[in-house]
Amino acid sequence: MNILLKLAYDGSNYYGWQRQKDFITVQQVVEEALLSLTKKEVGVRGASRTDTGVHALAQGVFFKLDTSIPMESFPRALNSFLPKDVAVLEAREVSDIFHPQKSVIDKTYIYKIQNSDTRNPLLYRYTAYERRKLDTQSMKKACSFFLGEHDFSAFCSSEATVKSHVRTIYDMDVYLKEDIINIKIKGSGFLYNMVRIVAGTLLDVGLGKKEPENIRDIILSQKREKAGKTMIANGLTLVEVNYNE
Amino acid sequence: MNILLKLAYDGSNYYGWQRQKDFITVQQVVEEALLSLTKKEVGVRGASRTDTGVHALAQGVFFKLDTSIPMESFPRALNSFLPKDVAVLEAREVSDIFHPQKSVIDKTYIYKIQNSDTRNPLLYRYTAYERRKLDTQSMKKACSFFLGEHDFSAFCSSEATVKSHVRTIYDMDVYLKEDIINIKIKGSGFLYNMVRIVAGTLLDVGLGKKEPENIRDIILSQKREKAGKTMIANGLTLVEVNYNE
Q1: Over the stretch B199-211, which tens digit does the pLDDT of each residue have?
Q2: Domain check: are B17 and B88 in the same one?
Q3: Out of B10, B51, B106, B204, which one is annotated catalytic?
Q4: How many structural domains does chain B have?
């Protein structure tokens, strides 16, 4: 049986999604919970390799398992073996040809920036903080230049190992929600640190250091140093993944 | 100079407000930040002794200090010495007769309960979780029975050491905000664990184990065992303190 979970987690206490030798990761605690529940060694694969400190409301988790637990009961069953900062929201059976990365149509991330005179410490785990007033209208305007298919080498960490830096951005918006600036971006996929660099570049636009129109040239340059800084990981949350089945 | 701060903190990583010998508390980090900023040993007093894991958006912090730092610059100055989970929101000078507890007119707490089929792990630090569907209308109805001056011995931990258990509740409400049940309670003051026991009793009302009208008898009984359980600390936040100056 091929099973796909929708998984949510607070990434604060994890060294990202992907299993590592000496550090605790979300993948590890999910595999350990599956072992406790099923008494079987189950290897899982994620839709996104979220980094240390990055959160998820909709990580895709794929694995093969023969089980008599009905899918509607599966989240609750597995959640009883998961720590408080990780939870399965949904479980469903998928076909034999389903692939945890190749079956993805799009992914959506939200990057949050607290933009106020004083920082609210109850939000620090889930937002970046910027004291200087940001011009959200300019940031919103800048979004349109990211849309479509581009080589995003300028928005990619030098540590990235993938061959092609071409990705498609389907939708992007900047909006205020209770004094938090939300940068929402939906794309075919994202390069290493891409959303955090996009957020850092929009920060420069919000501060007036860059004009919305500059985004076009930054993309065309394919030069990392033309874009803004890589924002801190804890402002980032994977909020949606859609699949072609 | 008598100074009053409005302090916000995420209580997750602290053993409450009040200084303890072997455990880190919010009072300690504030006093250490004041030492770093002013090079003086400054003892501070809080409006509320929040427990381990309890949060604050408006803790009152009082101290005496001769300083040339203008009050409007004080939050930012002190914040640069505070950890990410603690922040000063406001600072002002108060009179010589100001007292951090006796000058308090009222305090407001909010207790949050996540009431959904699946728990959202990004909220676990700030909410209790209840899977069974709660009847918020009954919980709301129960609020009226708490209003006014009562002996709240039934809603008080046996560890409490104060003489009088008489307190006045000025205002109380239960409302839904993005799938979170908020229990908001404003009173002259609160006994040890009182808000968490009130929340546990309202939980019983929401589950149909108690009727709203039972609250009257529970209060009159003055017996702790008549009330509900003490809910976990991390659902509780001190949100407002008003003073008579």
Answers
A1: 999 999 999 999 9
A2: yes
A3: B51
A4: 2
Q: Which of B57, B118, B122 sits opposite A122 (nearest CB)?
A: B57
Q: Indicate the residue of B85, B121, B124 with minimum beta-carbon distance to A121.
A: B85
Q: In this structure, is residue A227 part of a structural domain?
A: yes
Closest-CA residue to A38 (of A80, A15, A67, A70): A67
The answer to whether residue A184 sits within a structural domain is: yes
How many of the other CB atoms lie within 10 Å of CB of B145? 19
Token pair for residue B200?
A: 């546990």
CATH code: domain of residue B116? 3.30.70.660
Predicted TM-score of the model (pTM):
0.91
User: Are B135 and B201 found together in one domain?
Assistant: yes
pLDDT per position as a tens digit, B43-64: 999 999 999 999 999 999 999 9
Determine whether the interchain pair B55/A122 forms a contact, defined as Cβ–Cβ distance below 8 Å. Answer: yes
Amino acid found at B12: S
Residues A147, A59, single domain; the answer is: no
Q: Which residues contact A151 (CB under 8 A, 6 or more apart)?
A: A165, A166, A219, A222
Residue whose structure tokens are 């207790």: B111
| C-alpha dihedral, A36 to A42 to A46 to A51, nearest 10° | 60
Domain encompassing residue A186:
105-243
Which of A48, A63, A94 is the endpoint of a domain?
A94
Domain-embedded: residue B181 = yes
Asked if residue B237 lies in contact with residue B109, where contact means CB atoms within 8 angstroms, the answer is: yes
> Residue ranges of the alpha helices (H) in chain B?
26-38, 74-79, 136-143, 194-206, 214-221
Nearest to A111 by CA among A61, A173, A69: A173
Are the Cβ atoms of B121 and A86 closer than 8 angstroms? yes
Helices and strands (H and E) in chain A: how many: 5, 10
> Which residue among B94, B115, B144 closes a domain?
B94
C-alpha torsion sign, points B213, B214, B217, B219: negative
Q: Which of B122, B132, B232 is most worth mutating to test chain A (most A CB atoms within 10 A of its CB)?
A: B122
Closest CA to B147 of B177, B108, B186: B186
Please give the ipTM for the structure prediction.
0.85
